[in-house]
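Exercise (ungraded).
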Amino acid sequence: MTRDDIRKAVIEKLGDIAPETDPAALKEDADVRDALDIDSMDFLNFVTALHRDLHVDIPEADYPKLLTIGGAVAYLAAKSV
Amino acid sequence: MPSLGADMDAGTLVEWLKRPGDQVRHGDIVAVVETQKGAMEIEAFEDGTFDRPLVEIGTKVPVGTPLAFIRGAGEAAPAPVTSEIKLPLPGPAVPSPAPTIAPAPPAALGRHISPAARKLAAERGIGVEGLAGTGPGGAIVYSDIEKATHPAAAPAAKRPGLDLAEMRKAIAAAMARSKREIPHYYLSQPIDLTAAQQWLTGTNTTRDPTERILMAALLSKAVALALHDFPEMNGFHKDGVFQPSAAIHLGTAIAIRGGGLVAPAIRNADTLTLDQLMAAMRDLVARTRAGRLRASEISDPTITVSSLGERGVDRLYAIIYPPQVAIVGFGTPAPQPRVVEGRVEPRLVATATLAADHRVSDGHRGALFLLEIERRLQQPEAL
């Protein structure tokens, strides 16, 4: 999976969780919780969807690394090698 | 048409999920109605055969209007209308309109479609049967209807599932009534959640994301269990008297992105395991945001719990949702210096608040109730 594929997946999952927003327009380093008004249940659903579709283990301790789109793409790219 | 709270006087029938001749069992979803709180699924309250609808799709009818005729076992088909769908919260008696015994229009049976999408489809005369949905679980959302009509049109600011202006009116009516009628008293207690957080971290480490539990589930379970000893916090104040409830149905406040709030019930929350409670919460949040709650989930709560979650402030002063008599709030957990066994230590602390009805209970009992919630949260493994 290329970084572009991963980015596409991340943005798609965020869009599923907050369908009335446009995650593709977010800055790489914006905190998605603030930018998309995502609560802990939404975030858990985001992690669940990434885990399911990308087959990557995401322990709770790593959640802080997934708070921005740039961070999530880097984390998932490193994990899926 | 069921009443989903004192502030609701009418609802619009938008979909039948049963057709004439279908068998109906107690609890089956038979119809979807649109209310100020979004689309609600209406359940049957008896077994029988769906004989015929009495209200046409798209019709707005007052609370109390019979929606359909369900024939009980052994009843002859042309029997008089004696057996309407019975609902737990009958509104004021309203004369039923002349039954229109038109055949039900072909409905998209079982398809999930948001109220906004449904409205738009009706306005534009679009059939939803062949449409692919892009919402949660394949639900048809507003943008799908937009695309079906104006493939090139820029989507307007949209909000799948819910009419927030209507919801605001419903919240305003319920909260104004609460402030007018209920003599609230307020209490607060900082609760040490360090043990609960440690237990949660340990439990979730070995679990896939699907199986993980959130702090909100522990908080709700602690409230549900504490209620066993405080029946005066759990039930309805109606017609000048308090009616305690044996069952504990926890209203769970769910914020809608961009504004709006619904507090549907987690039924019998005290009897659920943490895993079951967490699953129920996930399901409720998903359906609330997709605009797909059941009518009974709105009318059932016997008390409400409102958690600010991770991004909030230290406490909330909640307003009781009538006819309930109490609401428990949890502020955002944050590290705080605390004295533990004579030493100052960083601990994770969240402030719990209680707003309760002085017509039913006093501050002394309310304080003991909050302390019981605190005690329960020190033993997370027992929740």
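Further reading is listed at the end of the chapter. For now, observe: Chain B touches chain A through 27 residues (CB under 8 Å). Residues 241 and 360 of chain B are 9 Å apart (CA to CA).
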